Amino acid sequence: MGGRWRNLWDLSDTATMDVGLSGVQGRSSESETVALGAVDLSVRWRPLGRAAKERSVLWRNELLVRRMSGETVAGAYSLARWQWARRWFVLGRYERFGFGADAHAGEDPAEQGDPHAADPEERWRASVAWAYVPSEFQALRLQASHTQSTSGDGDSEDRIMLQYIFSLGSHPAHLYW
C-alpha cells in the first residue's frame, strides 16, 4: 500500500516551488514489515522571454527513510543546477546516507552485542559536474565526486567520470523542465 502527494506553487512569474510526500508499506521476502517514506522540495527559476532557453536555476532536495525490523535508516541529498548558457550546465550535489535512529538509539552498540546497531556504512558524498546538452536526445557530462565514511576508519573514495548519454527513437514528454 502506498501513495504520493505533490503540489506545485508559482512563487513569481519566473519561479516555482514543488513539494511532495511519498510513502509505501509492505512485506519483505522474509515477511518483515517494511515502510518507506520520502519528502522532496524543488525550487526552479527561469527568466521570461528569449532568455528562458539560456538561463535557469534548480535547487532540489529529498529525504528518504526506511523502517524495517525496528531499525530506521535515512538518506538525503541536495542538488543545485545552474544553466549559464543555452546548452551548458554546472551541477553541485551533496548527499548523506545510512544515518538515522536505530533500535538501540542512545545506547552503546558494543554493549548490546550488535555490530549493525550503529550503521557502519554511514557516508557522505559531494559531487560537481559540468554538462553539455546539444539536444534533447544527447548529453555529455564530466563529474568529479568524493565519498567519505563517517566511521572511525576514514575510508574515502574519489571518482572522475565522463558520461555520454543518448536516446534513440521516441520518448515520453517531460512534465516540465
Q: How far apart are the termini?
A: 30 Å
Structural class: mainly beta
Sum up the overall morphology in one term.
globular
Widest β-sheet, arrangement of strands: 1-2-3-4-5-6-7-8-9
Q: Strand content of the residues, in percent?
A: over 45%
N-to-C series of helices and strands = EEEEEEHEEE
Rg, alpha carbons = 20 Å
Helical percentage: under 10%
> Poorly predicted ranges (pLDDT <50, ≥5 residues)?
106-120
How many E strands? 9
What is the count of helical runs?
1
Rounded mean pLDDT score: 85
Please summarize the sheet with the most strands. 9 strands, antiparallel
- Give me the oligomer status: single chain
SSE blueprint and pairings:
Elements: E1 2-10, E2 15-27, E3 33-45, E4 56-68, E5 71-85, E6 88-99, H1 109-112, E7 123-135, E8 138-149, E9 156-166
Antiparallel strand pairs: 1-2, 2-3, 3-4, 4-5, 5-6, 6-7, 7-8, 8-9
Give a description of the structure.
- By secondary structure, this protein is mainly beta.
- It has a domain at 50-166.
- The protein contains one helix and nine strands.
- Strands 1-2-3-4-5-6-7-8-9 form a nine-stranded antiparallel beta sheet, with no helix packed on it.
- The longest helix has 4 residues, at 109-112.
Quick recap of the structure?
The protein has 1 helix and 9 strands, in the order ββββββαβββ. With 177 residues, the protein is an all-beta fold. β4 and β5 form a beta hairpin.
Quickly list its features.
177 residues, 2% helix
